[in-house]
Structure formats: C-alpha cells, structure tokens
Amino acid sequence: MSQSSWQDRFGWxxxxxxxxxxxxxxxxTKGAWDGIKNRVEDWLPESFEETQRLMWFxxxxxxxxxxxxxxxxxxxxxxxxxxxxxAIGANDGIDxxxxxxxxxxITGPDALKAxxxxxxxLPKSVAVDRLKHLLIGEQGDQTCVVAVVSPxxxxxxxxxxxxxxxxxxxxxxxxxxxxxxxxxxxxxxxIDEASKGSLAALxxxxxxxxxxxxxxxxxxxxxxxxxxxxxxxxxxxxxxxMYFSGQQMDSVLTLASNLTYVLSISSGVHxxxxxxxxxxxxxxxxxxxxxxxxxLIPCLLSAGTTAVGMxxxxxxxxxxxxxxxxxxxxxILAAAxxxxxxxxxxxxxxxxxPETWHHKSKSxxxxxxxxxxxxxxxxxxxxxxxxCSLVAxxxxxxxxxxxxxxxxxxxxFWDDAPILQDYDWLEENVGPLIPxxxxxxxxxxxxxQTDERFRIIEHVQxxxxxxxxxxxxxxxxxxxxxxxxxxxEGFRAVIRRASIRKILEGRLSNYVEMNxxxxxDGDELWRISARVHAADRLNYGELMQCLRESVxxxxxxxxxxxPIYSGSVPLIFKAQSEMLSDLIKSFGLAFVMIAVxxxxxxxxVVTGLFSMIPNVLxxxxxxxxxxxxxVQVEIGSxxxxxxxxxxxxxxxxxxxxxxxxxxxxxxxKTEATLLAYEHCGLAMIQxxxxxxxxxxxxxxxxxxxxxxxxxxxxxxxxTALLCDLLILPAILLCFTKKPKPTTEISEAGLGDVxxxx
Length: 757
Known about the structure:
This protein is α+β, with helices and mostly antiparallel strands. Helix content is about 65%, strand content about 5%. About 50% of the residues are buried.
C-alpha cells in the first residue's frame, strides 16, 4: 500500500468536507465580529468582594453610567446649555417605543440655581465653591451637562453616544464636532471603535507580511497559497468556535484569532520544509506522506505545549485573560487538526513540484557555513553559554520583582487618542471623573437628630476631601443649607438649628430622588461621592488605604456609623493586584507543565529542566527590563508571558527532535547539533520571522493592549529564536547522554543520515 494511500483515497473527500463547512465557519465569524463588545467594569468575576460591593451599590443608588458633556465657551450664562439638556433628555422612540437614552440630566446652572434659591438660599459664592470640580471649573465659570444613562442607553451604549452627539445639531450655534465628552458610557464604545475600527486594515497588513515572507522563502505560489488558506481558515474557525460556544467576543479575544493565524502559518511552514527536504529523494506523492510522518510528532507536541501555555492563563481571575487562554488553546488545537488533515490532502491533490525544491535552497546553502561554525565551536563554548544564561535569568528575576501593574483607562489608548484628550480637557476645565463611593450606614438614625446626621456626613466628606489625590466630593450635604455648629449657644442658635432641621427633614425625599440617601431595614445609607483625576497615575492601593484611615479617624466618635467603600477605584485596584498575581501563577503553571513534557521527551529530568532555559529567558528578560525601567504591565502585556513560553517551545521541540534522531543514528553530539541546524534551522528562522512580523503589524492598533501585545510578542519570539539557536544546543551538549545507536532508522526519520560504521 502506498505511503500516501489515505490522501489518495480520501483526499477529495477531505477537501470537499472543509469546503462544505466553510460557510458555517463564516457565519460564526460574522456573528463573533458583529458581537464585539467591551466593558472594563465587567472584567472581574462576581465572586470578588469588590465586584459584589459595586453591585450592592448599583442596586441601591443606581449605576455610575453617565456622560459629562461640555464645549469651549460652555459657561454658566451660556443659553445653549438649557437647549442641549432638553435635547439630550428627550424621548427617541427606541425600538419603536417611547423611551429616552438618558434619565436625569443635570447642568451647572440648574444645580447653582437649586442651591441659591429657596429653601436653601445659599450665597452664590458658597454655592459655586460647593460645585467646583464637580459641575463647575476651578475659575467658577466653565460648566457642563451631566446625563445619567437610562437602561435603554446601557443596553446600547453606541446608540446613546450617537444620540448625545446628534442632540448638539438641534442647538443653535452648536455642532457635534464642538462637543467634548467623557464618562463610563463612552469608555466601552471608544474601546470598541479603537480595537475593531482598525482591525480589518491591520489584518490585511498581517496577511501581506506573512505572504511576502512565505513567497520569498518558498519561491512557490502554490505552496504559499496552501499555507495561507490554512491560516485564514484557522483564524475564521477560531472566531466561529467563540460564537457557537456562546462566548461574546471582546477586543482581547480578537488576539486569539490573530495568534491562531500566525501560528497556523508557522506550523504550515514547518510541514512544507519537511516536504521540500523529501523531494530530493522521493516522488512528489511519496514526499507528502514522508513529510506528514516527520512533522506529526513535532507538530502535535508544538500544538500541545502552546495550548498548555495558553491554558495556564485560565487561572486568571480577570475574565478577558481567562477567555483568551481557553479559546486560544482550543483554536490552536483545532488548527493542528486542520494542518495535519487538510494540508496533506491539498498537497497530494494539488502537487507542489517546483524545480528548485529538488535541490538545496540558496538560503540553506548560505546558512551552511554558519551552522558549521556554530556546531564546531559550540562544544568548547557550551559551559560559558550555560553559565551566562543562568546569570541573565538571575538578573532578570531581580527586575521582575520590581514590576508594577496598571488597569487604568489611560493604559488602553495612545496618549493622543481623542477620548483621552477629552478626558484631560474636562478634568482640567471642569473636574475629575473617576469615582470612589463611600456609603455611611447609620444604625438607628432616629436616635440622632437630622442636623447632627448631616454634620457627620459633612465631617466625613471633608476628611475624604483632605486625602491627597481626591479632587472633589459630593453628598447630600452639598445640597443642604449651611449647618450651624452644634456647640453654638443662645436663643437664636436654637431657633436656627430647629429651622435647619425642619428644612432637612422636609428635603429627605429629595435626597432619595437624587440618589444620595436610601432607607433600608430601618437604617439610613448616605452616599458620599469622591472623584480623582484619571490622568494622575495615582497608586490606587495607597489612595484607598489613606482614604480608609482618614474616614475611620473621622468616625471615632460615631460608633453607630459604618463606612462601606465602592466605586471604580477599588475595582481597578483589585484588577491591578490580580494582574500581578495572575502573571506569576499562569507563567509558573505553564513552566511546570511544559517542563514535564520536555523531561519526558528528553528522558532526563535534568536535561528537560535546563532545556527550558532558552524558553523562559526571553520572557524573564522582557519583564525584568520592564521592571528595571518602571514600565507598567497592563492586560496586553500580561497575555504575552505564558503565550510566548508556549510558542517558544515549538522551535525547541523541532530542534530537539532532530538532535535526538541523529544521536540514535550513531552520530556524535557535535554532528547531531549540525544535523539539527541543517534540518530545521532555516525553518526556525522562517517561522519566527512570520510569527514576529505577522504580529508586529498589530502594534499600529490604537487599542494599547493589542499594540503592546504585538510589540512584546515580536520581541519575545525573536529573542526566543536566538536562544534556541545559541543556548539550546549548548544545553543539549552539556547534559544529553548519548543513547545506544540503532542500526536502522525509520524512513520518516533522518532520510540520508545513517549510523556510522
């Protein structure tokens, strides 16, 4: 029976099957693409205390979904403010029903009027001071419109943003281009636009880069087309797997399909090189079978170790990271099946037989002197190389210990992104936008006079305002009359306190409507909102610690008052803490699992352990350098550590496979090193260039996690290539024990390499 019998018998069936499932895959791809949606607040699981507190807060006081809208010249006496507020608060007939995109709409002039008119009648200067950095800028003139998003707006944030922009066109002298907008509602929409808007163009760029490298490497249009079709199909299959499994795609998950694309090309190049090597001795159809058998174990091991690296990310508590790890692993394993089934069938039914492939390629010939030099000198340099690699690992680990993480909005976009420019302008001219929520739970409020409860709120609010980094605070006390001191004596003071108490008691329902008060099981929940600047790069851990200490100190005389902390800042701090923990856990898990595979493959614990050095060193060097330079790790960087480790092992496995085959054929270690260089050195260079530069295109993405992922992966993979070419052979020479030579080598083994007599 022919070695290629299954391709001969079932080749057309295999090709027809994949052609038939392609429309289904395309449907899944379109569904996943259309469903891309991002919301940073949903990154942490509901089991976290910080997430539960935020949900608890939302249930009682509503979400922090809001837009702050302003424009140059939006001052307290600007008549366009009232017109715009009316337009943005209007019903729009969403989904055929009379509904509004926004609920409450608050403006600076309206809030100022409420404070200066009855029953509060505050002096204008006092009222302006209370609203500074909240609705009015530092100079007391620039103001804004704050619109709270309705449930309909939360369900379709892009529609709400478009409605807010279109509302400007209904105001005389105002256009959508004039608006400066920021807020949590805009964040997810901006991420969608930044990641999805450029993804199609970047994909085309990646396609072009990979095709160019393959065309130069193969010098065969048919080989290039087959590998490219493989990669495109696997990329689409990755997205289809997400869609049909019910997973909503986000901007981080798009990286899983991009990664599947370049890794599929990498595996296809290795298979093509095995086929090309066989053509020198075998017929075209026999070479298909020989290439498949030669590539089967290395490719399966490569897919397995890469999947292990990805699966290690599932230990993360951050949902996009967990999803990326799981779906990247599933996609890579599925791509391995497609590679080993579809590509041989395509190669058999559409033979690749360029004349140049029957001779040693010019590229291989040019590299031959380099391989000979490396293999001859490696034996004498093996121990210094090994020692230097250990020193590099030690120095890198010291740098890794200095790593800090960040999950702030400014880490998701380039500095010149429109959303960041709008945030910076609004925070500079109006006030900060990142919320910290402190809820004071007052037990048995009936035992404390109403004015005294407001003194407590005001006292705590001032203590929060005094914390470095907090730029503004707001509570029910902001919209209350001036509370006289409780130690003020005299008949007038008594009458004044009674009058203030009556006003406050009459306004309790107003504070409930304003979402500053909730009454629950006889207890009162009073909300104090603090704001910090998004651009200040604050250490949120230290900020929350200082805030807690300040609040606790202010409540020492009030044992019946319990503070509860919530808002975006505690959640972001938790995300940052988890990122560092996840980086360590996922990388450690990937290292252990892949090291076990290497020990089994090399049949030696010590050699297997040390063979991991060229695979872990690139990641340690990169993250150690980031630690020394103070570059913060964000979600895109987090993905690279375990992913790069899993991918870097691929070339190591191919090199080790040929090295072991040569030893079993009776070759010396030096000869085995040379043979491994000759058989897979060129393919290692080609695949590393394809993966590195195919991903590097995405460094142009305006979504920073994608861009950082691309930069780091490119650097990591190129460094891993150097480590595999220089450090791995040295380690194999140091620790590999030469096996007993076999008298015969499988035809799927070394080809023209035979045991020496």
